[in-house]
What does this fold into?
Amino acid sequence: MAKVIVVTSGKGGVGKTTSSAAIGCGLAMSGAKTVIIDFDIGLRNLDLIMGCERRVVYDLINVINGEANLQQALVKDKRISTLFILPASQTRDKEALTKVGVEKVIADLKADGFEYIICDSPAGIEQGAMMALYYADEAIVTTNPEVSSVRDSDRITGMLSSKSHRAELQLSPIRVHLLITRYCPERVEKEEMLSIEDIDDLLGIELLGVIPESQDVLNASNLGEPVILNQDCDAGKAYQDAVDRLLGIDREFRFVTYRKKGFLSRIFGG
Amino acid sequence: MGLLKYFRQEKPKKGSARLAKDRLQIIVAHEHSFAARPSYLAEMQQEIVAVIRKYMDISSDDVKCEFSDKAEDDMSVLEVNVALPKHK
Ligand SMILES: Nc1ncnc2c1ncn2[C@@H]1O[C@H](COP(=O)(O)OP(=O)(O)O)[C@@H](O)[C@H]1O
Ligand SMILES: [Mg+2]
It folds into this structure.
């Protein structure tokens, strides 16, 4: 069964696009035919993070308006043969996103054999964000350990359970996962940052992954290479763990505790 | 609070994370109770005010409707408070 997964948060700049790219990549690497749809109309960015910005011809709105067909708009990833991107429009406004239009695109993608349809949500709780989550079967609520992000995540979790297609038709509810990003164990140790336990107490959502704050994420976006492709770095490994858990594989949580560097490791690194 | 009790308290947390969590707990609980309010509440409040107004001189600010639906209670409570002018 094909799965529609929205990556959402309410708040902007918390790592939705970074996570959509990494998780989409990871799912595709497992062999499943995967598409990542950029719902951030007017502010498309997924293409840059994926490194395919120069190959974008048509976009989601073109497909919805019948100005291009799906095959023309899908951008195939150069690295992973099972991965595709459906870019956002840079010029139209969000009103062009309609329920009917999105429903048809998703149905066509399913008919085309896509197993995972990842919806990269824009920030906010307006039209674009609502359309990204409306047809979701599962949701990855992306949260930074910081007050406004946690509050917005709670808010968007409420929307998932009241404003989605599944809610309106009283189908089984969207399965909601929590992805904590930009986590800094050292600052948690100093009690300057909300801990995983704190966020869990507050939101009560099943934890999918914890991605550490890392310079490697910025490097990855500079290169247009989703960070999960760099399996030498902690953030890449943490995203891989999250993907594995999505696929039902048990993984221990890593990079979540702070160890003061000892004398030797300070000298030799590590 | 007695001095002994004061010293026995949990060691205060060093950073600001504790306060962040406490503030979030309050606001999240508040927003949940707000979201759980039945949608007809505002309209019902207006009708209640209209009925009381037929007999008494009050303004709509004198009526407060509170709906609470706490997880730990086994029922929801609708509380209607009407501040009446002093009976002369
Ligand atoms: N784990 C992380 N460590 C460091 N920087 C991160 C991490 N995750 C995301 N970022 C940075 O945060 C910024 C916002 O990320 P982005 O994925 O575009 O967020 P959103 O899509 O939610 O607006 C980017 O500059 C990105 O590089
Ligand atoms: Mg984004």
About this structure: The first helix of chain A runs from residue 16 to 29. Residues A 9, 12-18, 45, 123, 181-182, 211, 213-214, 217-218, 221, 235 surround adenosine-5'-diphosphate (ligand 1) (CB under 6 Å). Residues 146 and 194 of chain A are 7 Å apart (CA to CA).
